[in-house]
Each structure stands twice: as C-alpha cells, then as structure tokens.
C-alpha cells in the first residue's frame, strides 16, 4: 500500500507548494508530447510447426521512438538522491528518507538495504568517492543529525560528524575534498576525506545545493534560502575553493538545484525553490557567462527539484518541475527534457508509474544513461530515437547474431539531427525466460577497419516476447567512421 506523501520526503516541495496553491496555476511548461510505451511486443510470424521468426523490419528505415523510462526498483523505497560510482557504474547508492540507504551492484537491476551502523534512516543526501566505489558518505538533517561514512561498500557505516547534514558533495577530482551543508550553518568543507571540518565563507544560511566545476574544481557554486550568508539570493560562486563567495544573481531568487554544463562550464542552470509570492522568480534560470547574467528559460512559477545536463550531449537538459495539472490543480513532479539547451521542453512520461520525482543522476562511464529517483523507486531512461535523414544513412556491412533467445529485429547506423553517428538496434527476446541483462558493445571502425571508438550500453529485465530499442552513439572523433562491429552478451 503506498505511503502518504511526506512533505520532507518530497524534499519540502509539497509543503512549500500547498501553501501557495493560488499561485500554482501560473506554473507553466511546454506542451507535452504524445507517449508510447518504450517496450513493445512484436508479432512473430509462423514458419512451421513450433518455429517462429522475428517480425520483419526494413533495415534502412528507423521509426522514431519516444524517450521512455524503465522501472528498476527497489519497491516502495523513495529515491531521494542517487550516487553512481565514477569507477564502477554498476555500483549505485540510493538515499531514502524512509528506508535509509540501498545499494545496487548491477546497474539498478537488484537492490539491497545497507543500513548497518545507520542509526537514523531519514537520509537526506549521499555521495560516493570519485576514485573508490567502496567509500561513500550519507547525511541526515533529521534529529539526531549526522554524517555517515562507509569504507567497505556499505557493509558497515560509522558517524564521522554529529552535524545535521542536508547535502553532501564529493569533489569529482579529489577524494579528500568534501563539502556539506550544515543545516542552517552554511557550507562546510573537509580536505582530509571527512576526518575534520571547517566552515567556508558561507558560514550561515540554508544551503540547498552544491556544485563544483569539474574543469576548474576550485570553482564552487551554492544556492539556498535567502538569509544569513545567502541573504542576497540567487547563486553564490567561489573561485578559491570556498575561501570567498560572491553573489552572482539572479537577485532575490531562492535556489534549490544547480547544474554546471560539463562541456562548457560557462553555462549554468539553476532551479528555484517554490516559495514566496512572486511566481516569476521561480522556474529555471540559465547563465552563459559563468553567472554574470541570467535568463529565465521556463517553468515560470514552478518549484524545480532537479536539473541535469547530459555530459555527452550538452544540448540535452533534464529538469523535474512541480506543475499543477488539470482543473483541480493536482500536483505532479515528472521529468522534462530539452534538446536545445533549455529553449523548449517536452514531458518525458512514457513508462512512468509515479508522478512524484525528486532527483537525477548520470552514469560517468556511459553518460547518455540517465537515472531518476521517484517517491517509489528508481527509473532508467531509454532516450528514444530520431528519424535519420536518408542522405545520412551509412551502409552497414557487419552484424552480430546473439544467442540465448535474443534476436536483432532492426539494426542501422546513421547520424542524428546533431550529426552524431549512432547505432540503432531493436532487440527481441524470442525465448521463454526472462533475460536479466543485455550488454551491447559497439566498435566503430573507419574504412580501413581500424578502431575509432568503442561504446557500451546495457538494458535489463527483457521479458519473453518483448523488444527494446537501443541507441548507442560514437562519442569520439567519429567523422571517419564507416562501419561497426557488435558484441552482444546476455545473462
């Protein structure tokens, strides 16, 4: 039986927005697109007694498929925050306000509670060491507040600080540097992997979000509620690792989440906290000059739970706004995606079983893999396909025939609208048992057969007589790619 939605479990968004229901109808978004299930059931044709063949497909035509989510579990566990290992992307830690911490070691296919030593299961935030997937940090601001650390992959945890911690963030380039938001005491920093802590120049105030520029790790952005050291509102920026901070705007805006474009760190997106009486000061704001100036780019009047930029295709921006739907003003918080740097947005709702989402995370090894945490469980995004133009289609001369009941029903290499070379596959489980994992390795080759780039993607829980579309891009310098080879492994 679903639990009642807790204001704290939804990261304060419901409590904040219910008090402003008269404003919520002004929360606006772009029209949503039509939805089609991401998993389809092809109709096989009979070729003889007991024999079937996969449905026919045209090898030179790719039918557009909508982006669709796949539910991964764990059941009835709130996905408040996700932390994916930089070293092993199969290792995912999940923070929950109700159930403490869960962990997956297989990319989200299965989950295990890991709460030994956690004496407060109301976990607000979690982060993993960038160089060691066995080291992770988890914070709670619920009394008694604490910051916990594991060094054995979650088998055991110990409290390393008795502070009420709202947010924990590991520097992506240095395992020793960790930032925490210390309830209403601003931003604190450790330079010895959490053994000791010191306040930064943000010494007072509620810090809701922390972001570090991966290309310039001394550059730190924070945002929060408008009081204390954050009284001017908006995004605050440090270029010296927190020794000093400067208010960058937008003025008087309470910030809930920040995303730095990993390709162009001059570009910053900031999602606003849904409170106050000025809807125009909410939504998503964007800066293209490192915070010097800002423009509101959508979801006016909305609280925004999370913003993420696809590291491999930075034109793709994801957001979770809280919007009022229908004449009764019911609230929903579902993912939206922009394919043009935030200019326009589309709702990505295919495959969702929840309308209360909280956070995003991306796979550091395969950054086109997007995860989202919801009030009940975790989802993984299949980004969908575009229709390649006929002039851009590249002739395929090499294919693979997987075993174990898995059949390729469609296979094509083409360029998408942005010019990226992609391999489009449709895989069909023609067997009678579930396939737990499908791993596809694509080796992109030039005209001489030399390896140009290798990309890997995976999908799981492919049920009998179901099919799934996969899109596997070439991430390197791929202009000379003319061919590819496939390696498909199943479990």
Layout: helices, strands, pairs:
Blueprint: H1 13-18, E1 39-40, E2 45-48, E3 51-53, E4 68-73, E5 81-84, E6 92-96, E7 100-104, E8 112-113, E9 125-128, E10 136-140, E11 146-150, E12 158-161, E13 165-170, E14 178-182, E15 187-190, E16 198-199, E17 207-212, E18 220-224, E19 235-238, E20 246-249, E21 255-260, E22 268-272, E23 284-287, E24 295-298, E25 303-309, E26 317-325, E27 330-333, E28 336-338, E29 346-347, E30 357-362, E31 370-374, E32 377-382, E33 406-415, E34 421-429, E35 435-445, E36 451-462, E37 467-473, E38 483-490
Description:
- This protein is mainly β and 491 residues long.
- The protein folds into two domains: 13-18 and 67-382, YVTN repeat-like/Quinoprotein amine dehydrogenase (Methylamine Dehydrogenase, Chain H, 7 Propeller), CATH 2.130.10; 390-490, Sandwich (Immunoglobulin-like).
- Helix content is 1%, strand content 41%.
- The protein is built from one helix and 38 strands.
- The strands form ten sheets. Strands 25, 26, 27, 28 and 29 form a five-stranded antiparallel sheet that branches. Strands 1-37-34-33 form a four-stranded antiparallel sheet, with no helix packed on it.
- Strand 31 and strand 32 (377-382) form a beta hairpin.
- It is globular, with a radius of gyration of 23 Å.
């Amino acid at each position: 039986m679903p639990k009642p939605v807790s204001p704290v479990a939804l990261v304060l968004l419901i409590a904040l927005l219910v008090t402003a229901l008269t404003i919520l109808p002004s929360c606006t978004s772009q029209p949503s697109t039509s939805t089609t299930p991401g998993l389809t059931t092809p109709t096989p044709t009979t070729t003889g007694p007991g024999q079937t063949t996969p449905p026919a497909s045209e090898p030179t035509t790719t039918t557009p498929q909508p982006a669709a989510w796949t539910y991964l579990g764990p059941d009835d566990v709130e996905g408040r925050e996700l932390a994916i290992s930089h070293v092993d992307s199969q290792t995912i830690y999940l923070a929950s306000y109700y159930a403490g911490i869960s962990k997956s070691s297989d990319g989200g296919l299965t989950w295990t509670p890991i709460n030994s030593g956690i004496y407060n299961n109301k976990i607000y935030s979690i982060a993993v060491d960038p160089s060691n997937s066995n080291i992770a940090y988890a914070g709670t601001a619920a009394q008694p507040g604490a910051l916990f650390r594991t060094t054995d992959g979650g088998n055991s945890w110990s409290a390393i600080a008795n502070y009420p911690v709202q947010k924990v963030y590991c520097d992506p380039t240095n395992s020793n540097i960790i930032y925490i938001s210390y309830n209403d005491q601003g931003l604190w920093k450790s330079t010895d992997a959490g053994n000791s802590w010191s306040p930064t120049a943000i010494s007072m105030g509620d810090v809701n979000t922390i972001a570090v520029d991966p290309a310039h790790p001394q550059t730190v952005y924070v945002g929060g509620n408008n009081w204390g050291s954050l009284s001017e509102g908006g995004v605050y920026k440090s270029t010296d690792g927190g020794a000093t901070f400067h208010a960058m705007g937008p003025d008087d805006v309470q910030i809930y989440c920040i995303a730095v474009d990993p390709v162009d760190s001059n570009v910053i997106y900031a999602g606003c906290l849904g409170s106050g009486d000025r809807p125009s000061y909410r939504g998503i704001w964007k800066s293209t000059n490192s915070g010097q100036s800002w423009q509101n780019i959508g979801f006016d009047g909305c609280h925004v739970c999370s913003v993420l930029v696809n590291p491999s295709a930075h034109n793709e921006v994801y957001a979770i706004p809280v919007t009022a739907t229908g004449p009764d003003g019911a609230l929903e918080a579902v993912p939206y995606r922009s394919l043009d740097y935030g200019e326009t947005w589309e709702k990505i709702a295919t495959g969702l079983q929840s309308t209360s989402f909280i956070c995003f995370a991306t796979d550091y090894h395969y950054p086109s893999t997007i995860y989202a945490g919801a009030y009940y469980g975790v989802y993984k995004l299949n980004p969908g396909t575009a229709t390649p133009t006929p002039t851009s289609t590249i002739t395929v001369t090499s294919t693979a025939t997987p075993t174990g009941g898995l059949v390729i029903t469609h296979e094509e290499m083409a360029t998408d609208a942005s010019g990226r070379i992609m391999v489009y596959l449709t895989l069909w489980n023609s067997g009678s048992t579930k396939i737990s994992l499908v791993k596809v390795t694509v080796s992109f080759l030039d005209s001489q057969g030399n390896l140009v780039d290798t990309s890997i993607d995976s999908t799981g829980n492919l049920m009998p007589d179901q099919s799934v579309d996969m899109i596997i891009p070439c991430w390197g310098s791929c202009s000379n790619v003319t061919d590819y080879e496939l390696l498909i492994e199943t479990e």
